[in-house]
């Protein structure tokens, strides 16, 4: 049985004159999803969100909502909710009236409006501020009002355009929790735009990576982090070490790669590679351990190098190891348990073959 | 500021300021003169000239006509200018640039040319000399001005507020009336007052379009200056200066939208 | 409007129309203004153009008469002289004023702005009346000179070119101050600071940085003053003498005294063409400067 996705974007493109803002995007959003559109600024993620909202018209392609083509339906008839980075609260209305706005549009009677707005205000813990004007509130409070306004009429999908981008780090982390909580409690479907990969990893059920006006990869945060399928994904999500090499065939159930600077490394088996093909290896800094030259390291990938930099980051030690003139590898180990290596000492980098991701593009 | 202000600059600025406000200031003492002769300083203090203005049926009729025209102009220029300003700021269609040039044209054409055109046109239509003719002419004359003030106001408003309202379910019309208009109420009021004042003071178009029946205050003043230089003008000028001052201060205060 | 939306929903379900574009709907908001301008601005201008070629049938007699008349050439010359002199003079007085206001702190600047705005919003008739009172034979200036310096000025100060220039410059200065002031305030102060730190004197900073950056605003002001003064009607009529008649006054004369609409219209077309040409020249100066 296939479930109809609540929103599906099919081959959507947006072209302004000669600029392609979105190219051939296809993506399905299931009910209850928390889908994050993640990408650098100018990558087209907001364009994709806006075309789902109906604010930006598609040059070609379709937007289906529960299987119905809504491509030409104006934004006010799509039944979505939206939250913006700069809050977009109406300055001439009180908090109460801002939240009541979508309900009044829908001609709900006033006692019902009152109940719903108060519920929504409770949900975002602003019950006492109903009669304030937006400009009397802090940034965090304003964004909670905007959240309440976006959920109060139970829209099919809530679109969020970098809602936490204007807030400082502490507030941002607090509100991340609240948005996650709202999502779980209301069973809402959320499409969320951010350029912050940590935010994407921590909040989403799925991430769509957008780069250069294209949707280049879609997956769960776990896959995106541990099994990225492209060099771009590996580089953009989390910190990673990327090493160039050539594929040298499979052995013992592992794929073998000869590094550009010399040395053989085993990685997770990869299908469809020709011997001699150029590949990139991705290693997460925390997957690597450091050992002295005479420690036992059976079954692991090994590379030797010299410590170029070693510093305490709090939770972790961050060590940069120079393997050869061109290659530097960053290693992060828990500072509470790992031992410290002085700069210029010779060390051995070791990691499990399954933590080596082989990327072809 | 980083730059210091040199003495010669201060003196130059002071002289230009004095030149700029001298006419507005000079009419005030003149208006309280107790003599029918125009001289400075005035010989004594009296309300004579004000009484003469308020008791003169022609002056009162002209003032009423001007008020009528300016009120109509305010309504018409706002009714056309506010929506077009919205379209110009918020629509990214290709044709919008052309519409913008079209709407701004009256500002680039010498008023006398336009006034002559209206004179011939309205004579053909048989509405010359009517209050309606004056209202139409002044509305077009003021339109670019209204549009510029409203555009400046709209540019200060976060467009996402309108997008939010639309996604929340409001139609384009509903967004305009219940979101956009309240947010730019201040700039609209400022534009309206400016439009009123421009029409109230306008001479050239009125000179061509008004008839003895619809003589506006500036036209009455114009003939009065041309033929007799009546001392009543001092009282009227003082009142007009006061009106300008009030509108200019209120306008400056209202020009920014609610943020 | 709801009909439009309903139609687009119908289209959407048939998969035809692509554009939900609120932009199209918003563009409709320009309709009332476009109708007003078309009906009450474009048509009258077209009528002027047609009228200039019509006198009981098609004719170019109006233009011939104008070009052959010494009166016209004299008045055109007067008009251009007054336009250029008044524009130049108001820029010369307006620039230092704008520069001064730009250096002020917030509150004094607001007060200064009101001092510039007040004459801007004052009726041209109030100003004309006031200048007659100030400049006339029994006016303030002459009386003061007589009383305090026992000086009798030989020349009149009003109802001649002096009166016209005083009135025009007074009318035009605010139009120079606003664009220039906006430009000066928008210039990043770091630029001037950087130039000073690099060793430029205040004079050099002004001429090599501030003034050059303000050129576009000067051109914009010049365009404004030219458009405003070339068609000026009230000031020469009230503050000038017989010999200070400008083209606008001549148009008025043909329209209302001579009742020759063809001549009036032909003059209006010429005035429009001349002011258009001047605007073109000035905006070209601007674009050269920017490239």
Descriptive overview:
The complex is a heterotrimer of chains A (361), B (259) and C (291). Chain A is of the alpha+beta class and 361 residues long. Chain A has 2 domains: 229 residues, P-loop containing nucleotide triphosphate hydrolases (Rossmann fold); 121 residues, Beta Barrel (OB fold (Dihydrolipoamide Acetyltransferase, E2P)), CATH 2.40.50.100. In chain A, helix 2 crosses helix 3, helix 2 packs parallel to helix 4 and helix 3 crosses helix 4. Chain B has one domain: MetI-like fold. Chain B is globular and about 70 Å long. Chain C has 2 domains: 51 residues; 226 residues, MetI-like fold (Orthogonal Bundle). The chains are: A alpha+beta (361), B mainly alpha (259), C mainly alpha (291). The interface between B and C is large, with 94 and 96 residues.
Helix content of chain B: over 70%
CATH homologous superfamily designation of chain B: MetI-like
Q: Overall mean pLDDT score of chain B?
A: 91
What is CATH's topology name of chain B? MetI-like fold
Q: What is the element string of chain B, with H for helices and E for strands?
A: HHHHHHHHHHHH
Query: Largest interface, with Cβ-Cβ < 8 Å?
Result: B-C, 94 and 96 residues
Helix proportion of chain A:
10-25%
Number of helices of chain B: 12
- Order of strands side by side in the largest beta sheet of chain A? 6-7-8-3-9-10
CATH superfamily of the largest domain in chain A: P-loop containing nucleotide triphosphate hydrolases
Structural class of chain A: alpha+beta
CATH architecture level-2 label of the largest domain in chain A? 3-Layer(aba) Sandwich
Which descriptors apply to this entry?
heterotrimer; B: 259 residues; mainly alpha; C: mainly alpha; MetI-like fold; 2 domains
Write the layout of secondary structure elements.
The complex is a heterotrimer of chains A (361), B (259) and C (291).
Chain A: E1 7-16, E2 19-29, E3 34-38, H1 45-53, E4 60-65, E5 68-69, E6 80-84, H2 95-105, H3 110-123, H4 139-151, E7 157-161, H5 169-186, E8 189-194, H6 197-203, E9 206-211, E10 214-219, H7 221-226, H8 231-236, E11 241-251, E12 254-259, E13 264-267, E14 278-283, E15 289-291, E16 301-312, E17 316-322, E18 328-334, E19 346-351, E20 357-359
Parallel strand pairs in A: 3-8, 3-9, 6-7, 7-8
Antiparallel strand pairs in A: 1-2, 1-4, 4-5, 9-10, 11-12, 11-14, 12-13, 14-20, 15-19, 16-17, 16-19, 17-18
Helix pairs in contact in A: 2-3, 2-4, 3-4
Chain B: H1 7-31, H2 48-55, H3 57-90, H4 96-108, H5 111-125, H6 131-155, H7 159-167, H8 172-183, H9 185-201, H10 204-209, H11 217-227, H12 232-254
Chain C: H1 2-13, H2 22-27, H3 31-51, H4 61-67, H5 70-103, H6 106-121, H7 124-135, H8 140-149, H9 161-186, H10 189-197, H11 202-213, H12 215-230, H13 234-239, H14 247-257, H15 261-290
Helix pairs in contact in C: 3-15, 4-15, 5-9, 5-12, 6-9, 7-9, 9-12, 10-11, 12-15, 14-15
């Amino acid at each position: 049985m296939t479930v109809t996705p609540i929103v599906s974007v099919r081959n959507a493109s947006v072209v302004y004159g000669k600029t392609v803002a979105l190219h051939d995007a296809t993506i399905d959003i299931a009910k209850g999803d928390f889908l994050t559109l993640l990408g650098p600024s100018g990558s087209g993620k907001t364009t994709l969100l806006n075309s789902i909202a109906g604010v930006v018209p598609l040059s070609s392609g379709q937007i289906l909502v529960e299987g119905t083509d809504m491509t030409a339906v104006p934004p006010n008839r799509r039944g979505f909710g939206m939250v913006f980075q700069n809050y977009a609260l109406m300055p001439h209305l009180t908090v109460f009236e801002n939240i009541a706005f979508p309900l009044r549009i829908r001609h709900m009677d006033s006692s019902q409006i009152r109940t719903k707005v108060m519920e929504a205000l409770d949900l975002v813990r602003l019950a006492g501020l109903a009669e304030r004007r937006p400009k009397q509130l802090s940034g965090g409070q304003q964004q909670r009002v905007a959240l309440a306004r976006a959920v109060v009429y139970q829209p099919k999908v809530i679109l969020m355009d970098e809602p936490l981008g204007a807030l400082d780090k502490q507030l941002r982390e607090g509100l991340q929790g609240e948005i996650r909580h709202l999502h779980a409690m209301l069973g809402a479907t959320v499409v969320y735009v951010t350029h912050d990969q940590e935010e994407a990893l921590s909040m989403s059920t799925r991430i769509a990576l957008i780069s250069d006006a294209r949707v280049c990869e879609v997956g769960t945060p776990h896959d995106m982090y541990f099994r990225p399928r492209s060099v771009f994904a590996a580089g953009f999500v989390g910190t990673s070490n990327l090493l160039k090499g050539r594929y040298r065939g499979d052995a013992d159930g592992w794929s073998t790669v000869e590094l550009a600077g010399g040395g053989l490394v085993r990685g997770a088996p990869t299908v469809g590679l020709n011997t001699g093909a150029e590949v990139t290896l991705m290693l997460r800094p925390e997957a690597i351990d450091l050992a002295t030259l005479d420690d036992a390291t059976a079954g692991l990938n090994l590379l030797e190098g010299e410590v170029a930099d070693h510093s305490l980051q709090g939770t972790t030690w961050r060590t940069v190891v120079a393997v050869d003139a061109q290659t530097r590898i960053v290693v992060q180990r828990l500072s509470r348990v790992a031992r410290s290596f002085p700069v210029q000492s010779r060390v051995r980098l070791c990691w499990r073959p399954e933590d080596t991701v082989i990327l072809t593009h | 500021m980083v730059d210091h202000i040199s003495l010669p600059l201060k003196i130059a600025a002071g002289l230009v300021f004095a030149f700029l406000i001298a006419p507005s200031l000079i009419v005030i003492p003149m208006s309280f003169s107790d003599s029918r002769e125009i001289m400075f300083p005035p010989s004594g203090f009296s309300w004579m000239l004000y009484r003469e203005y308020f008791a003169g049926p022609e002056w009162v009729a002209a003032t009423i006509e001007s008020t009528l025209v300016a009120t109509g102009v305010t309504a018409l220029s706002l009714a056309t200018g506010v929506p077009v300003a919205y379209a110009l700021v918020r629509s990214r269609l290709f044709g919008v640039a052309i519409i913008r040039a079209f709407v701004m044209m009256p500002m680039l054409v010498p008023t006398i040319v336009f006034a002559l055109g209206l004179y011939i046109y309205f004579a053909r239509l048989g509405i010359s000399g009517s209050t309606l003719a004056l209202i139409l002419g002044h509305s077009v004359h003021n339109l670019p001005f209204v549009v510029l003030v409203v555009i400046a106001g709209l540019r200060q408003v976060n467009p996402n507020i309108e997008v939010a309202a639309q996604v929340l379910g409001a139609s384009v019309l509903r967004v305009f009336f219940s979101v956009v208009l309240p947010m730019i109420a201040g700039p609209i009021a400022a534009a309206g007052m400016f439009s009123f004042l421009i029409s109230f003071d306008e001479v050239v178009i009125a000179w061509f379009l008004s008839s003895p029946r619809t003589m506006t205050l500036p036209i009455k003043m114009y003939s009065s200056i041309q033929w007799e230089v009546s001392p009543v003008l001092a009282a009227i000028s003082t009142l007009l200066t006061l009106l300008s001052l009030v509108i200019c201060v209120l306008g400056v205060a209202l020009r920014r939208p609610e943020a | 409007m709801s009909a439009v939306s309903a139609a687009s929903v119908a289209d959407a379900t048939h998969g035809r129309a692509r554009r939900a574009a609120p932009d199209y709907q918003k563009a409709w908001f320009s309709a009332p203004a476009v109708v007003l301008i078309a009906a009450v601005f474009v048509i009258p201008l077209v009528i002027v153009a047609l009228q200039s070629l019509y006198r009981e049938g098609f004719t170019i007699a109006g233009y011939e008469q104008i070009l052959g008349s010494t009166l016209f050439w004299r008045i055109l010359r007067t008009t251009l002289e007054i336009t250029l002199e008044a524009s130049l003079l108001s820029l010369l007085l307006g620039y230092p004023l704008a520069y001064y206001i730009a250096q002020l702190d917030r509150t004094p600047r607001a007060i200064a702005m009101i001092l510039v705005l007040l004459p801007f919003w004052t009726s041209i008739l109030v100003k004309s009346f006031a200048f007659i009172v100030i400049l006339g034979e029994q006016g303030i200036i002459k009386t003061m000179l007589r009383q305090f310096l026992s000086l009798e000025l030989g020349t009149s100060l009003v109802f001649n070119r002096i009166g016209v220039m005083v009135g025009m410059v007074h009318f035009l200065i605010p139009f120079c101050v606003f664009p220039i002031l906006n430009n000066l305030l928008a210039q990043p102060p770091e630029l001037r600071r950087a130039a000073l730190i690099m060793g430029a004197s205040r004079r050099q900073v002004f001429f090599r940085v501030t003034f050059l950056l303000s050129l576009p605003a000067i051109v914009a002001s010049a365009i404004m003053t030219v458009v405003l003064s070339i068609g000026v009607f009230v000031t020469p009529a009230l503050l000038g003498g017989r010999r200070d008649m400008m083209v606008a006054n001549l148009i008025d004369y043909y329209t209302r005294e001579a009742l020759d609409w063809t001549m009036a219209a032909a003059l209006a077309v010429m005035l429009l063409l001349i002011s258009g040409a001047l605007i073109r020249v000035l905006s070209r100066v601007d674009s050269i400067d920017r490239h």
